[in-house]
Amino acid sequence: MEIVSFGSSSRGNAFLFRTARTAVLVDAGFSPRFLRDCLLQCGIADHELSAILVTHEHVDHIRGLSGLLSWHSCPVLATTGTLRALQLDSVKRIVLRQEEWIEIGDLAFQAIPVPHDANEPIGLRIATSGADVAFFTDLGTLTLEVREALQRATFAIVEANHDRHLLEHGPYPPWLKRRIASRHGHLSNDEAAAAACLCGSQLQGLWLAHLSEENNRPELALACVRSRLFPHHDLPVTVLPARGFRRWSLENAATVE
Ligand SMILES: [Zn+2]
Ligand SMILES: [Zn+2]
Description:
alpha/beta, Metallo-beta-lactamase, Chain A, eight-stranded mixed beta sheet, 9 helices, 15 strands, globular
């Protein structure tokens, strides 16, 4: 399995999961043209996407969804609550039921419920032979189901949204600070470190995702996770940029910048 991030932050998120014959986009939070260009750069021509999976309806995850569907007429997978919020007409929809596995070509997806202020939001386990990816952005706390998925993962993508100090002393109004730090908001760097601590020794790599541009810095997120977790460990940890490719191949276990 190859994983490609097209960019990840509070402003936009999109990830491609692919094998030789399957290509699934998880979230479409950039402009349709940007997403189409990224897919073309990955060798995926129009109408070659197998499916688009949407974790929840916040704009940083769906900004380009309806536009992209005019170039990629593929099914959209989401929970019932998310599909209701998306209001997609004349598109093939596939309902993701929480905790159930669904197969798209070579890839299997399990929807894991997460606490976040949206309609039935999910994180994911994404599996193919020998690979089990834990994918968790946009969640306020690490539930039992999330912890179990992290324990099994061979690769993990985890939100490191904010530095607590920067959030507390930053420009956001008090209600928004409370929302972000709440159990239905976003994970801090400390919580991302705690999430990574749960992963087992089979973990090959970690991506830190969905950083806030106002309330975090890549070097703070990386230092927090590294110092708390792996002081003597050479596990590859990458902070995803807000825009720009990062790739991971679970066969040869390396991030290509
Ligand atoms: Zn988000
Ligand atoms: Zn969200």
